[in-house]
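Private note to self, pasted from the team thread so I don't lose it. Backbone tokens:
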């Protein structure tokens, strides 16, 4: 089984609830856990998030834990070298990240981050293919998508979400908050960013079987944590065809109708 955890954005308490539930109720030694990126910014405790990520990797094993890169990690890394990029990152939640570490902004801010956290960020992956699923932070550019100035797998939105292209696997993604705060489920993609940093947002964790035979929209279970520490489980099932309310005409009636026309 693969468990995918959506955008965290500094919400350490929500992440702790999700990981505790995962460890105590679901996780098997052979399972893989994929974190979808955007660990930092906007929320109050990016430092606490990284502490939990380190602890979980040590608990479950490095080979079974995948850290994807999000656009916020991308901004953090590029902010080191470019004042304009630094301003962009700070405006989009970087101030909250520095505050969680007790770092006062200065030219040396990056070197003041814990080395283990810097290494984790630098080692994040752009994507993780696994059987019938393909995990990526923002999405995969369709064939007809225009060129983007930044890495599309970290930044793409509408061009990917609106595409009906067959990507060769079901793409599981974050990055774009689903307005309903429930997963977006389509035949070719599943979105699990449900706005954890928003006042009414939720952190979503979804379970996928990479060997499952999929015909149309997949079935899967997902779990959501709210800001009150409550976690709920949901099972998404395929909708059964609705029975028609119209009665089929009897053969005699059908024949009579044809004679009258």
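Design output:
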């Amino acid at each position: 089984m693969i468990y995918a955890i959506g955008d965290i954005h500094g919400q350490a308490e929500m992440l702790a609830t999700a990981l505790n539930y995962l460890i105590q109720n679901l996780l098997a030694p052979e399972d893989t856990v994929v974190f979808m990126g955007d660990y930092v910014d906007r929320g109050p405790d990016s430092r606490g998030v990284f502490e939990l990520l380190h602890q979980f990797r040590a608990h479950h094993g490095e080979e079974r834990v995948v850290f994807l890169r999000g656009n916020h990690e991308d901004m953090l890394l590029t902010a080191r070298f470019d004042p304009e990029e630094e301003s962009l990152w700070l405006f989009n939640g970087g101030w909250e990240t520095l505050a969680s570490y007790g770092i006062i902004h200065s030219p040396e801010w990056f070197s003041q981050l814990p080395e283990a956290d810097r290494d984790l960020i630098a080692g994040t992956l752009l994507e993780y293919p696994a059987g019938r699923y393909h995990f990526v932070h923002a999405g995969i550019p369709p064939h007809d998508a225009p060129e983007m100035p930044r890495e599309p797998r970290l930044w793409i939105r509408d061009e990917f979400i609106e595409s009906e292209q067959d990507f060769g696997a079901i793409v599981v993604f974050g990055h774009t908050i689903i307005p309903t705060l429930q997963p977006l489920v389509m035949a070719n993609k599943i979105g699990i960013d449900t706005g954890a940093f928003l006042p009414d947002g939720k952190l979503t964790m979804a379970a996928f079987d990479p060997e499952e035979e999929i015909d149309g929209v997949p079935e899967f279970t997902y779990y959501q944590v709210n800001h009150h520490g409550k976690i709920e489980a949901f099972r998404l099932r395929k909708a059964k065809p609705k029975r028609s309310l119209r009665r089929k005409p009897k053969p005699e009636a059908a024949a009579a109708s044809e004679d009258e026309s």
